[in-house]
Design a protein that fits this description.
The complex is a heterodimer of chains A (119) and B (250). By secondary structure, chain A is of the alpha/beta class. Helix content of chain A is 46%, strand content 18%. In chain A, strand 2 and strand 3 form a beta hairpin. Chain B contains eight helices and eleven strands. The chains are: A alpha/beta (119), B alpha/beta (250).
Chain lengths: 119, 250
Amino acid sequence: MKRLMYSVFIAFWSSVATIVVLGALSSDPVERAAGKARLVTSQELTRHNSQKDCWMAIDGKVYDLTGYVPKHPAPPSVILQWCGKDATEAFDTKGYGRPHSPAAKAMLGEYVIGELKNN
Amino acid sequence: MLWARWRSHPCSYRTFFAGWIGKKSYTITDVRTLAQRVVELTLRPRNRLLRYEPGQFVYLSPLDSNLSVGRGEEHPYTLSSAPHERVLRVVIKDFGDATHALQAVSVGSEALIEGPYGHFFRKSKKKTGELWVGGGVGLTPFLSRARALAKEGKAVDIRLIYCVQDESRAYFLPELKEIASSIEGFDVRPHYFYREGPLTVDFIAARCPDFSAREIYICGPTPMIDGVRKPLVRKGVGSAHIHSEEFSWL
């Protein structure tokens, strides 16, 4: 009985320790991003201008949209042309006077990586 | 029958068997530019031509030594040719490194073809009329079947909605219109994103009012399919009658 309780004791605290360590290693990405909000210069922004590495500035914030581009409900070139640029107007008008939906604006928050530096 | 189904499922058959002896040698005899960043390759077999059904795909590994990237790398492509043709044709859009390099692949170079796989059109059909929705290069399986139907010459009941960004991207529209004029009951309508925005069920309903009575096939980018699948089900189309294949860029 004593042996059993001892084993359970070790097993329990090992599990707790594992969970704590894993938790510390993989912090919430949003928290991480917010904690490390960085200033991005326009020069740096223009370097991320391709399908495989696509950043955009919208309304002063900078977003890494590389992972989102394939999911955007429009032909690829519609969004790809804005990689590396300030896409505020394009986002607000979709190029033809209609803004994106509130849901779309909410989705944008997941991709923020910093703020555009004002010179 | 069971053999055919197992054979046409890539995971099992390929894993254990086709990887070794399934790849056949073909020569690329033509590279036709359809639009910016889209080409159609024509391939002639060294030995026997592949037997396949419209809508199926193959794995193609280009062996051209001039390729900057992707030599020997295999990627799946839906066949745009019809089975009666003496060559294979595939449409390759520039989605990334390997497909970008393939835009300029050398005529006369070798490619390995493995397949065919897939059963896009083989799925059970209960309804007689069909509605096809093809977006961008997602038109390919429909092109294959349309070319096959044009050869057969029989009357059909098919509505095709070809979704592209704008007129300059509708590179298959002329051929489809020609096929439509040669087959009774085959109708093609384009959908231009720049004018209409994303494809909606309302657009489908306006062009094809009896859509809920048809077998619906959709092929194209994931966001396009997602944008209409659930709305179609909500309008009363049974999800068993909606067959979709996603062309997603990974």
